[in-house]
Fold:
Amino acid sequence: MKYELPKLPYAYDALEPFVDARTMEIHHTKHHATYVEKLNAALEKHQEIADVPLETLLADLTKVPEDIRTAVRNHGGGHYNHSLFWKMMTPKSGVPSEELSKALINTFGSVDGFKEQFSAAATGHFGSGWVWLAKNKEGKMEIITMPNQDTPLMQGKTPLLGIDVWEHAYYLKYQNKRADYIAAWWNVVSWDEVERRFSA
Ligand code: MN
Structure:
C-alpha cells in the first residue's frame, strides 16, 4: 500500500457548527479512504509509475498508462484534493495576513470581493466538483472551477484554497442549501495555510 489516508489535524467535531462532525467523519473515513484505496489498486497494475509523485502524475496525465488514467485522475485527484482540503480548514480561522490581503485586493478589489466571487463560483458550479483559488504560472491569483476530482495542477496552477462542493461535503447538514454551506465554510478557512501556499 503506497498511499495512506492522512490523519485529520483536528477532531471530527472541531469545525462544528459550520461543518458537522458526522459529515467530517464520513467524508474522511469513507469518501477519502475510498479514493486512497482505489488509487493504490490502480497503481498496483503499473509498478513502473508507482514512485512518481502524485502531483507529477496529475500535472500530466498523458504520462499515466491509458488503462489506469481515469482511475488516477478520479481517485488520485480525490486523494490529492482531500488531503489539501483538511489542511485548508481549521477551528482557528482568523483573518488573512497583510501580505495575503494585499494580493487578494490587487486581484479581486477587496478581500470581501474575493469571498463574494469565490462563493458565487462555488454556488453556481453545476454538479460535483471543486472551486479553487489558484496561483498561475505568472504568480497571479485566479478563481477556477473544476469538475469531479480534477485539480488545478492539471492546468499548471498551484492550489491555494479549495472548497469541495460535492453533495457529500454538506448534504447531511445543509441538504440542497449549498449556499448556506459555503457561507458557513468561510468561518473555518485556514488563512495561515493559504498564506503558506501562496508564499511558497
Ligand atoms: Mn469530498
Remarks:
- Residues 27, 31, 82, 164, 166, 168-169 surround manganese (II) ion (CB under 6 Å).
- The chain has a mean pLDDT of 97.
